[in-house]
């Protein structure tokens, strides 16, 4: 039986998760979707969709979708749904897990890797993060959960962009890209987004693509000091004043007393603890050295490593080696062969909380053949 794809929907309160979910649940798309509200005992936000009393609440919707509110273990709910599906009691093609606004999607994603029983039935497709453009800067400043949700994302949907200026939106996109250059960012209006952009994103596939926003790499090319020693190069983190990106975005609030000072909505500079960096090397890696090094850093920094992925040039194989991880869980696989004439460059992106780039970089350099 094919594995059931799972999408994890995350985002802060008010970011529009429920609006997107309602749309997914009520539209006639012919898909049978089971939604799990992973609540952890919080007040259920959307009682009109999910009016249920008992502990095991599975509610069939008119278009064939199913809702299931869980106040206890996610694992139990997934097993229950898989068992009912096998017995033909419920029918669904995929699952969406909606996390609470304050949840860290990491442990939810890890469930699908760590638990053999769950891994036999389900396959995690992607983590989708909704970001409320109007309140995002404040939330990202104040709450690490919000920053983590951005770091984990495979796809970011920006909501409420009609409530902010073009300059503020651009500054926010810039900020998000530095936290997570892997995830495409797209503005959506009231959850109105084609389902093809919500499902089957294959964010966790070990595929040979490593999508990093190209502007992010370009900015790095000219922005900063590289450590370019004829082999590895590390693109540095970006918390040194971005003022030059935002100058043109300043706008004054002129509708107040003319004596008042100019308010700059984004203080040109957010030193977020969730950051990303990209490492590239043209020399091949020594497989044993790299494995030892990655094993060691995942052991030490795993809880702070949100997502990481790489397409690697390994000594001793003509094929690309694809690796990725969430927290302490890391997997790798052989990809396609390097094509004739293709530059055999290893590229890795690490997204995490205050990761010590110099230690990572030095260890990666020392793992080159």
Automatic annotation (TrEMBL):
Which Gene3D superfamilies is this protein grouped with? CobW-like, C-terminal domain, P-loop containing nucleotide triphosphate hydrolases
Disordered as annotated region, ranges: 236-255
Q: Which residues form a coiled coil?
A: none
CC per GO annotation: cytoplasm
Q: What does this protein do?
A: Zinc chaperone that directly transfers zinc cofactor to target proteins, thereby activating them. Zinc is transferred from the CXCC motif in the GTPase domain to the zinc binding site in target proteins in a process requiring GTP hydrolysis.
Indicate whether Nucleotide-binding appears among the record's keywords.
Answer: yes
Q: Which GO terms describe its molecular function?
A: hydrolase activity; nucleotide binding
Q: Source species, please? A: Comamonas terrigena
CobW C-terminal domain boundaries: 274-368
Q: Which family is annotated?
A: Belongs to the SIMIBI class G3E GTPase family. ZNG1 subfamily.
Pfam families tied to this protein: cobW (PF02492), CobW_C (PF07683)
Q: Under which name does UniProt file this protein? A: GTP-binding protein
Claim: Hydrolase is one of the keywords in the record: yes
The UniProt entry, under PANTHER family, shows:
COBW DOMAIN-CONTAINING PROTEIN, COBW-RELATED
């Amino acid at each position: 039986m094919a594995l059931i794809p799972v999408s994890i929907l995350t985002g802060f309160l008010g970011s529009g998760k429920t609006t997107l979910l309602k749309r997914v649940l009520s539209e006639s798309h012919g898909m049978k979707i089971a939604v799990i509200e992973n609540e952890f005992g919080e007040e259920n936000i959307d009682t009109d969709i999910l009016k249920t009393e008992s502990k095991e609440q599975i509610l069939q919707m008119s278009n064939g979708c199913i809702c299931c509110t869980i106040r206890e273990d996610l694992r139990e709910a997934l097993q229950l749904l898989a068992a009912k599906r096998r017995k033909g009691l419920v029918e669904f093609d995929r699952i969406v897990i909606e996390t609470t606004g304050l949840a860290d999607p990491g442990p939810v994603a890890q469930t699908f890797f760590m638990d053999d029983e769950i891994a036999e039935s389900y396959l995690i497709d992607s983590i989708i993060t909704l970001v409320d453009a109007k309140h995002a800067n404040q939330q990202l400043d104040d709450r690490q959960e919000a920053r983590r949700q951005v770091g984990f994302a495979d796809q970011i949907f920006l909501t409420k962009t009609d409530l902010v200026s073009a300059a503020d939106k651009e500054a926010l996109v810039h900020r998000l890209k530095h936290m997570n250059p892997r995830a495409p960012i797209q503005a959506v209006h009231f959850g109105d987004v084609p389902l093809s952009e919500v499902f089957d994103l294959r964010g966790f596939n070990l595929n040979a693509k490593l999508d990093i926003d190209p502007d992010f790499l370009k900015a790095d090319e000219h922005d900063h000091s590289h450590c370019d020693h004829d082999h590895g190069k590390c693109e540095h983190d970006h918390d040194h004043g971005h003022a030059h990106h935002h100058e043109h975005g300043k706008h004054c609030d002129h509708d107040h007393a003319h004596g008042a000072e100019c308010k700059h909505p984004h203080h040109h500079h957010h030193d977020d603890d969730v950051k990303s960096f990209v490492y590239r090397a043209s020399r091949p890696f020594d497989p044993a050295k790299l494995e030892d090094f990655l094993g060691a850093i995942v052991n030490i920094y795993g809880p702070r490593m949100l997502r990481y992925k790489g397409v690697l040039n390994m000594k001793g194989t003509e094929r690309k080696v694809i690796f990725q991880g969430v927290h302490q869980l890391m997997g790798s696989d052989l990809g396609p062969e390097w094509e004739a004439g293709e530059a055999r460059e290893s590229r890795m992106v690490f997204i995490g909380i205050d990761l010590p780039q110099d230690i990572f970089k030095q260890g990666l350099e020392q793992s080159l053949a």
